[in-house]
Amino acid sequence: MPEDLRTALLEELREIAALPVPAFDPDLAGDYAETGRRLPYENQYFARRRHLAAHALVGDGAVLSTLIADICDEHSWALPAHWDDGDPAVCVDLFACETAQTLAEILNLRDDVKDRERVEAEIRRRVLDPFFESEEPFWWEERFSNWTAVCAGAAGMAALALGYDTDVIRGRVLPALQAYLFSFGPDGGCVEGIDYWVYGFGYFTYFAEAWRDATGEDLLAGTEAIASFPAHVQLYPRSFATFGDAHYNPSLPPGLLARLADRLGVPLPAIEHTPTFADDYCARWAHLTRTLEWGRELGGEIKPGRTLLADVGWYVERRVIGRRMWSLAVKGGYNEEPHNHLDLGSFIIAADGEQLLCDPGAGEYTAAYFGDERYEQVHPSAAWHSVPTVEGAGQQVGEDSRAELVYTDDGVDAYIDAYGDGALLRKFTWTEDGIELFDAGPEIVESFVSRIRPETEGDRATWTGERGTLVLHGVDPDTVLIEDVETTTHLGQPERLWALRFGFSGGLRFELL
C-alpha cells in the first residue's frame, strides 16, 4: 500500500483509539423485538467493533484486553435480527463469524492480550464448535447468498488462525464456498448487487488467500468473471447500478480490488476516492487488515461501453452525449432473488453518475423489511421502481416472474412475464441525443421514479439534476399524476422519492441534456 494511503488509514485508527470506548446497552437488543428497528442496537454494536479494530492495530494492550473481555461478555455475537429459536449465544450468523475471525487474528497479532484462553474458548464455544461439530447443515450452507461466503469464510479464517487441522477445515468450509461459487452464472453477475458482491466475494477472496498460504491450493483460479462484476456495472466513478438492496456509492475495499487485479488480471472500476475506515459502517476487520496488507493506488478509467450480464439479467451501457457520460442500466432476472425487489424491467438513467431516473436501492432494514410485508415497504415495492402496471396489476412475487434481456443493435429489449396473464415488452434504444422507450402490453400505466421532482408541461416532463437534465416526451397530460413518499435510507437517513405516473402504451423519448 502506498505509504501516504497507509499513513492516512493508520492515523484514522489512532484518532479512533484516542476516543473513549462507546457505551454499550445490551437492553437495546429488546428494542428490535418491540419495534422491529435494527439500527439502535446495531449502531452501538458496530461502534464497539470499530474501536476493537483500532485498538488491536494501534492501541494500548490494557484497553484492548478490557474491550475484548467486554465482547466476550456479550449475550450474543449475532445481531438480534438473526436470532432464531435457539440460544443466541451460539447463533452462527454473519457477525458472530466475523467477530470470531477478528478475535482469533488479534490473538495472533498481539501477544499482550490478557486471558487468552478465555478468548479462544469463547471463539470455539460461540462459533467454531457449533459450526464444525454440527451434523446438520446451516441454512446458509444450502441457500446460497453472501451469507454462505461470509459465514463459512470468516469461520474458516478463525479456524486457520487458531491452528485447526486443514483437513477439518476442508471438510466443512470448502464445500460451502464451492457451492457459493456455483451460484454464479458464467457471466459472474451478482444478483444481490455491488454491496453484497463486496461482502460475499470479499470474504471468499480473503479466505481463499489464507487457504493458499496454508495449503498452496488456489481457490481464486477461474473466478475472473465474478471478480470483474464491479467494472461491468459501474455508471461513473463513485456510482454503480443500484438494483436490489444496494447503494449507488458503495465502499470498495482497495485491498480486495488490488488483490483481484494482481492475481487474476481483471479490470478495475474507476476509482476517484480511497475509502476510509469510517466509510465501512460495519467496521469489518477483514476489509481493513487486507487493505493495509494488499492495498495500493487504484486508477481505472470510465469509458463508453456496454455489458449484458445475461445470466443475472443486468444491462449497463455508457455513452458520451454532449459533454456528459450518460448511463442506462436495465434490470432483468426474477422476483425471488436474494434481496429481491419487484423491479423487472426497471431502469436507471444517469448523467455523469447522477441518477435522474433512479433505482431506490436499499431501504432501512427492519423486521418488516425482511418479513411478510416486505413488498409493502417503499424500496422493495414495484410502486417505487420505474415499472408500469399492466391491466391494473403490479408485478407478482415468485421465481416464475421473470424478465429476459436481449441485446439489440442500439440498446436492449426486456421480455417481462411478471403480471399474471399480462406480459410486457420494453424496448430501450439509444439515439443521437437520447433514449427511446417503447412499451408493448395491455392497459399500461407508466411510472418513472426519481429523487428529483419532475416538472410537467404539456406532453413533456423534466428532471433537472446537478449534472444533467432529462426531458421525457410523450407524457399524457390528461392522466398525469405526480406522487411522492418520505422514507428512510439503509442507514436510517430521511429521503424523498418522486413518481411520475400516466396512462400510455407505445413510444416515449428521453432527451439527454
From TrEMBL:
Identify the Gene3D superfamilies for this entry. Answer: 2.70.98.70, Chondroitin AC/alginate lyase
Q: Where is the Heparinase II/III-like C-terminal domain?
A: 306-396
User: Which is a Pfam family this sequence falls into?
Assistant: Hepar_II_III_C
Superkingdom per UniProt: Bacteria
**Which cell locations does it reside in?**
Cell envelope
Protein's recorded name? Heparinase II/III-like C-terminal domain-containing protein
Taxonomic lineage per UniProt?
Bacteria, Bacillati, Actinomycetota, Actinomycetes, Glycomycetales
